[in-house]
Design brief:
single chain; 78% helix; mainly alpha
């Protein structure tokens, strides 16, 4: 056994865990915003608890040299704006839509941002992938106009696509600036908490801030743990560790399985059985997401 194999296996394990966590996050978020909590509350728990978790790092290291403007853009991409858009979309559209439309739209927006910000041109494989993802998205979108769809499901779809675009900004910013992991972990929740928590507390509808409508504690604990600890901190650490060991291309392929896992979890945990159109959209989009991962030749 060579000396690098244990590190590789650890990285592989971390990478394989991420799509399961991502799929479970979609289901947990959908549960939260369709029960006792509002999308504004779940967003507040995400950035508020996340900022408390990283507070010791902030007090000892600050932003570790990350420029405030860059910290703001990174926080927009993975902090409160992403959370608000995602959770509001999930409150209107089912799990299958959340998995396919958000995850599927990310490569499309990332390619667009890559052209204008990174001066990259997508290759033929990625263009085919984008076409497949668009077809899959249209199938999912068509599902929102059937007779069994909820009245505002189409609006949820639009918000979920927008969430994919916002997160693509985060991923592109990471590629452009390559910040340290500690900079990212601190910037995302702290900047969002400073800007969002006062607005939430003063102006936005909330169940958490009203004694007469305070949600059951198990639901609050679930969202605080999943959003503020697992999604905001642990997933970032797992992704960073895995990427260093097995490479970004492999991790991107792993992540393409997250929508399918979310659908499976949604069937068993939320009793949300996708329609035939949704299944078709999931299948086509997953193929497109795998193709969207362009393998780069290793440099000598």
């Amino acid at each position: 056994m060579n000396s690098g194999q244990p590190n590789y296996l650890i990285g592989l394990t971390c990478g394989l865990a991420v799509p399961f966590i991502w799929g479970a996050w979609i289901v947990a978020s959908r549960f939260g915003v369709t029960h006792a909590l509002t999308a504004y509350d779940v967003s507040a728990l995400r950035v508020g608890v996340g900022s408390l978790v990283v507070l010791p790092i902030l007090l000892t290291r600050g932003l570790s040299g990350l420029a405030l403007g860059r910290a703001f853009i990174i926080s927009v991409g993975a902090g409160a704006p992403f959370a608000l858009t995602s959770f509001t979309g999930m409150s209107l559209a089912p799990v299958a839509h959340a998995g396919v439309l958000t995850n599927g739209s990310m490569p499309i927006f990332a390619a667009i941002l890559g052209v204008f910000w990174l001066r990259e041109r997508p290759g033929p494989q990625r263009l085919v992938a984008i076409a497949l993802i668009i077809v899959g998205g249209l199938l999912i979108g068509g599902d929102s106009f059937t007779g069994t769809a909820a009245p505002l499901q189409w609006l949820g779809d639009i918000l979920l696509v927008a969430a994919g675009g916002i997160f693509a900004l985060y991923m592109t910013a990471l590629r452009k600036w390559q910040p340290e992991i500690m900079q990212t972990i601190v910037a995302v929740p702290v900047v969002s908490a400073v800007l969002y928590i006062p607005i939430w507390a003063l102006f936005l509808p909330s169940s958490l801030l009203r004694a007469e409508s305070f949600p059951p504690w198990p639901e609050v604990a679930l969202q605080a743990g999943f959003q503020g600890v697992i999604a905001s901190v642990i997933v970032v650490m797992l992704l960073t560790r895995a990427t260093r060991s097995v490479g970004a291309t492999t991790i991107a392929v792993f992540l393409s399985g997250a929508p399918a896992l979310a659908v499976v979890f949604g069937i068993f945990l939320l009793d949300e059985l996708p329609t035939l159109l949704a299944w078709a959209g999931l299948a086509v989009t997953t193929v497109g997401m795998v193709l969207a991962v362009e393998r780069r030749k290793a440099t000598a």
